[in-house]
């Protein structure tokens, strides 16, 4: 799993929409759709229930959402820590 795909997944889950995630992240709708499809293939589980109103996470999607949020937060904290230690390039 790539962090960028998880970031896209979380945005779609939080907004209930691939379009909303695309707008928030300044990427195309097709990029969101592709990232989610790749995660679903990689994990072997449907992550969203698609409806006319948007998307809602499945049970597997809700499980992934909790873990993905933790991973993204930890990655952000690590990035900041390294920047503080490393100084300027």
Compact summary:
The protein has 89 residues and is mainly α. It has 4 helices and 2 strands.
Task: Describe the model.
With 89 residues, the chain is mainly alpha-helical. The protein is 72% helix and 9% strand. It has helices at residues 3-15, 18-25, 29-43, 59-86; strands at 48-51, 54-57. Strands 1-2 form a two-stranded antiparallel ribbon. The model has no long low-confidence stretch (mean pLDDT 95). Residues 1-58 form the HTH lysR-type domain. Keywords: DNA-binding, Transcription, Transcription regulation. InterPro entries: LysR_HTH_N (IPR000847), WH-like_DNA-bd_sf (IPR036388), WH_DNA-bd_sf (IPR036390).
Pick out its properties.
elongated, about 10% strand, about 90 residues, mainly alpha, DNA-binding, single chain, two-stranded antiparallel ribbon, 2 strands
Question: SSE layout and pairings?
Answer:
Blueprint: H1 3-15, H2 18-25, H3 29-43, E1 48-51, E2 54-57, H4 59-86
Antiparallel strand pairs: 1-2
What low-confidence regions span 5 or more consecutive residues with pLDDT below 50? none
Rg, Cα atoms, Å: 14 Å
Order of helices and strands: HHHEEH
Derived structural class: mainly alpha
Physical arrangement of strands within the biggest beta sheet: 1-2
Major beta-sheet overview: 2 strands, antiparallel
- The 3D shape can be described as elongated
Number of H- or I-type helical stretches = 4
Q: How would you describe the oligomerization state of the chains in this entry?
A: single chain
Mean pLDDT: 95
- Percent of sequence in beta strands: 5-15%
First and last CA, distance: 29 Å
Helical content band? over 70%
In total, how many beta strands? Answer: 2
Family: Belongs to the LysR transcriptional regulatory family.
Pfam family, one: HTH_1
Organism: Candidatus Scatomorpha intestinavium
InterPro entries: LysR_HTH_N, WH-like_DNA-bd_sf, WH_DNA-bd_sf
């Amino acid at each position: 799993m790539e962090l960028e795909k998880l970031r896209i997944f979380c945005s779609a889950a939080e907004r209930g929409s691939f379009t909303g995630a695309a707008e928030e992240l300044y990427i195309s709708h097709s990029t969101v759709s592709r990232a989610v499809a790749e995660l679903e293939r990689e994990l072997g589980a449907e992550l969203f229930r698609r409806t006319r109103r948007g998307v809602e996470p499945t049970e597997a999607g809700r499980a992934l959402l909790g873990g993905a949020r933790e991973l993204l937060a930890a990655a952000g904290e690590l990035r900041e820590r390294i920047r503080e230690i490393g100084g300027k390039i």
